[in-house]
Give the backbone structure.
Amino acid sequence: MSAMEPETRVLSQTRTRIASSSSNLEAGLARSSVDAAAERYRALSRAIAGRPLPLALLDLDVLDRNAQDLLKRAGGLPIRLGTKSIRCVEVLRRMLALSPRFQGLLCYSAREAAWLASLGFDDLLVAYPTVDAADLDAVAAQLQRGKRIVLMVDDPVQISLIEARARALGVCFLLSIDVDMSSRFPGIYFGMRRSPLTAPAAVVGLAKLIAQTPQTLKLVGLMGYEGQIAGLQDAVPGQGLKNAMLRMLKRRSVRELSARRQAAVQALREAGFALEFVNGGGTGSLESTAADPSVTEIAAGSGLYSPGLFDHFEQFHNPPALCFALQVVRQPTPDIVTCGGGGYIASGPAGADRLPRPYLPAGMQLIAQEGAGEVQTPVVLPAGVQIKIGEPLFFRHAKAGELAERFEQLLLLQGGEIAGAAATYRGQHQCFL
Ligand SMILES: Cc1ncc(COP(=O)(O)O)c(C=O)c1O
């Protein structure tokens, strides 16, 4: 699978429509996508020539276009940037400066939120619960400096631990309730295993518990993240039946979970709780989340870098902005070259889809027996392509933010030239989860 797929996909769709009328044109289109991929390989190789490999390369022009596309798909709602899918302070700043509709950050760790607050960011929502004392202390210190950090809860046990810490520290923690957005179909659990709060009454029950100690806890928001819509590809080539099934399940699930999110908001309102925000969604669900009138903001991040696991959605396609380059260090056979490094496997259910995607030159393939290795990654070259020892090959990570954990900086490409480098969290000696 290659990241020239955007072009290839567009071209092949065009081809389907015109195939019967012109086979010459078809051949021409196929050739032009191959030519475009070859040109992209040459351009990227030229841009990074002489730089130490491996390296991570972020195309700012593509990043900005992807950002605009996310905004367009969000239907006018603000987008809270999902930091786990970015993990680079300079990119966060660039996105927040790009449009006033990028508002606030959805953080993946409380200590991360506190660190970002110390760097000048504000309006931080921690998407996942924590009861760790060091986490709470770090957040409390930023609250005392006037920063806004909201913690996520979905259980009375978390509330009693957070409340006890708030009392000890003399602060009032801001809280958001996470509502379960999964669907249970006969024989299929369709969703994430996160919040136990499904019924509106359970949400109101937790809100009332929070309201019992107004000096130490304040409910300000609600989040309902529909991961099964936002993160599951539904247009994977060669999986027609599975795609059709998934789209059907998604349609049913969206109806159910939108109604559930609205019911939870309504129930809270009727019980006298005024919410400052209702957060939902992710890159893969911008359209359906924006259509839920109870949602006031959408979280998204992956669509910016556009990694391998976001290549095949029916509703949208963003070209890849982030890739990494490995150096060819040996050549075991004429059609196979082996690179140094490359074993950047994505988290989640272990499977081939978690492997890096060979990107450029187009048509390269990993070898099933070895995959992407800890210090060596062999690839089969496409027919007619020759790569010499010392030259680069380009790959893409399956997920968006995790690549940043493997590199201290992202080399920045703009107008086809290297325009600088941006430190990743790792490059700033930060490691959260
Ligand atoms: C709570 C929450 N919201 C939103 C997202 C969507 O993020 P992204 O757009 O990076 O896929 C995620 C991703 O896992 C998430 O956990």
